[in-house]
Amino acid sequence: MKFRSLLVAGLLAAATAISGCATDGASMFANSYGGKKDAGYQLPAIPLAKLPKEYRRQVVRYDTTEVPGTVIVDTGAKHLYYVMGGGKAVRYGIGVGREGFEWKGTSRVAMKKEWPVWTPPAAMIKRRPDLAKYRGGMGPGLDNALGARAMYLFNKGGDTGYRLHGTPEWWSIGKAMSSGCIRLINQDVIDLYNRVEVGAKVIVK
């Protein structure tokens, strides 16, 4: 009888754990926001208590006709979805373009770079002359505007000028602050980078 009680208790505990993962995908990645070394750079930990739960990486239910591997960006909700198939997607919190810099459309990931060099476009330098010192490129590092990873978006006309990239400014996630690029927390952009293949379709809506 005692064995049966222990068995039932164990099954109930397992069911509770499984249920928790299914309904709270954020808990699956809670340990992914700590400090970590990457290519010699020490990424600082993200203070999860200050990051709204809706912007933490999690697996969610997501019905779409797009094939697995597609990236769908919902600029209104400030969410990026990596389509997994089976009615599921990995959802990330993002920062988007501020007023006047929003954009929508379909493109593809033409190339991917780890710890990329950031070169501000001429129009940005015109708006912010202080960036002229980076006309030849800002070297990779913890303060680099593109963060730990960048995925370059091209369409039929060539380079759109927009990127999916990391940012050291974790507090900007969930806000409209960029010049049009889609930014993710560095820990999240590394995860996305490892999933997305060159040639992947990216839909921004």
From TrEMBL:
One of its GO terms (molecular function) is peptidoglycan L,D-transpeptidase activity. One of its GO terms (cellular component) is extracellular region. Coiled coil: none annotated. The keyword Lipoprotein applies. The active site is at H165, C181. InterPro entries: LD-transpeptidase (IPR050979), LD_TPept_cat_dom (IPR005490), Transpep_catalytic_dom (IPR038063). The keyword Signal applies. Pathway: Cell wall biogenesis; peptidoglycan biosynthesis. Keywords: Cell shape, Cell wall biogenesis/degradation, Glycosyltransferase, Hydrolase, Lipoprotein, Peptidoglycan synthesis, Signal, Transferase. SUPFAM superfamilies: L,D-transpeptidase catalytic domain-like (SSF141523). Residues 1-22 form the signal peptide. One of its GO terms (biological process) is cell wall organization. Residues 69-205 form the L,D-TPase catalytic domain. Belongs to the YkuD family. This is Lipoprotein-anchoring transpeptidase ErfK/SrfK.
